[in-house]
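re: that chain from earlier
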Amino acid sequence: MTNQQILSSALGGSALNRLKLQTTKPLGSLKCDNTIECRDRTYAIIPLDENTFLTSHHSNSLLHTWDVTNGGKKSSIGRRKDDFISVYDACLLPSGRIACASIEKGVKIFDLNDEVVVNEIKDLETPTISGHHTLRCFHYNGCDYILVISNDNSLKVVNVTTSGGQTEKTVQDQERIYCVEVLSDGCVVTGSDSNIKLWDIENNKCIILFEDAHYEGVLSLCLVSHNLLASGGGPEDCSVKVWDLKTKELVFTLQGHEGAVRHISLVGENTIASASDDKTVRFWDLLTGCEMFCIKEHRGPVKCVERVGDKIITGSNDETIKIWSF
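^ sequence. v structure.
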């Protein structure tokens, strides 16, 4: 079976349904509509609806929501004077609340409507929040759960519906874990120093191992469909790889970046975008494995990229957020 046949079978329509993307308008060349001078490094972008996105940042505890049409700030959530700084990652819970994590300060749950903290999970044995994809969430039996990576090479499954949170499962690895992604069948995928592992979290068992997937660390993961996964390598690797979880095959190695790949996102039908320390965002056609185009306008490492409605949003260490149309 050819790479294109594998991808056509693996992609289907499930990935777009999963992320609720609007794909009536295909990707073409991009132009920058707005540059937001946020005066801080942006670490995460979370789409809230077709017109609104939320960002987390390096130097303060505030989360900001933005209007995608004009780049205007809609609200700031949290307290400016707070020991909960450097919010490295955040995710939207199925209940509509936001979970965000900081170095050595645990996880806080915010209510977007009231803009207040409704829960705080501190007993996580010093979470290691060093980049994107370190915090993920899902809904099970009427409860919100988060997956959070810890310094002891473990992945915690925490029920955040209960006050203070309750750790219900722990996945223990022998390597440092950098990133995590949730699969639809209850399994999770982790990226570590060099390997990608698929875990049965119920039994704390690794069921699929992609050995030596990247050297210098697997820093980012993106579930493209129910059985297709993209991963990004560290500063000496710089590649994006596409894996078929069903056949356990490497489908493509996508080369072009000259720095660590910090974030990968599904941004269109059969299209992913990768953000890198080389100050670029590259867009890849998953049916051919070819680069479609590249954003080079940021002046610092790009930490995150997301599609929000019909726009592409990028966040960088150059203390700007850029909104792109196509």
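The domain at 3-325 is CATH 2.130.10.10 (Methylamine Dehydrogenase; Chain H).
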